[in-house]
Amino acid sequence: MDYLGQTGLDALKGADILKVAPEMYSSSVEYAATPLAQKFRGISMVLQANLGTRFFYTQSASWDTHASQMPGHKGLWQDAARSVSDFFADLREHDMSDNVVLIMFSEFGRRVVDNGSGTDHGAAGVAFAIGDTVKGGHYSEYPSMKKEDLQEGDLAPNYDFRGFYSTLLEDFMHLDPTEIVGGSFEKLSFINK
User: Fold this and answer.
1) Domain map (residue ranges) of the chain
2) 14 or 77: whose pLDDT is higher?
3) I need a labelling partner for 162 at 20 to 30 A (CA). Which of 71, 85, 109, 189 fits?
4) Cβ burial, residue 149 (10 Å; 0-12/13-18/19+)
């Protein structure tokens, strides 16, 4: 019971601390009025308040494009690109961009073959690492799209995402990833050390 009481007090204290973030925030960057851009603006506010938070999570609108994928994707990617660009411009304005790596991923991949006007859920997916400390490029093997190499119509996953997380934890955050990801996994070399 004491634990629950302390947890409640800590939550209230955290809420009070977060109230100062908007008061301390200033930026010349004009974020788009989209929900995603405003979420990135909120993260920048908390980062600039220097509250010690090391992980942030947000999500974008639905990319679940079973139909009308072509016209929908253009707007989704434009929003994502502008939001990320504004976020890093804001961080650079405050000399904070070297302290942030943004990862973008989907919880599911897409099928190789369309269903008429969109694509259904698939097995393999992609993840992006974005930031001033990231060495740009393509890492890992691109899965084969040959029909005989597909798994029930899906790209065959060929890299364990826990290696991606391990790279971020060890090479960027300087933490031991073993307990966090549940073992040792092949890392990629996308972080400038």
Assistant:
1) 6-54+69-100, 103-116+135-193
2) 77
3) 85
4) exposed
Q: Collapsing DSSP states into helix, strand and coil, what is residue 151? A: strand
Structure tokens at 166: 């391990």
Q: State the Cα angle at 138 between 132 and 142, rounded to 5°.
A: 155
User: 162, 163, 146, 164: which is closest to 154 by C-alpha?
Assistant: 146
- 112: which 2 tokens? 């190789």
Other Cβ atoms less than 10 A from the Cβ of 55: the count is: 5
Look up the pTM and report it. Answer: 0.83
> Could you give the CA distance from residue 72 to residue 66 in angstroms, rounded to a whole number?
10
What does DSSP say about strands 121-122 and 109-110: parallel, antiparallel, or unpaired?
antiparallel
Single-letter amino acid, residue 164:
F
Among 130, 136, 185, 191, smallest CA distance to 160 is for 185
Strands 127-130 and 109-110: unpaired
Confidence of residue 69 (pLDDT cuts 50, 70, 90): low
Assign 123 a pLDDT band (cuts: 50, 70, 90): confident
Residue 57, CA atoms < 13 Å, CB-side half-sphere:
2
Determine the Cα–Cα distance for residues 189 and 134; give it in Å rounded to an integer: 9
- Contact call for residues 157 and 132 (beta carbons, < 8 A): no
Residues 180, 183, 143, 100: is their CA dihedral positive or negative? positive
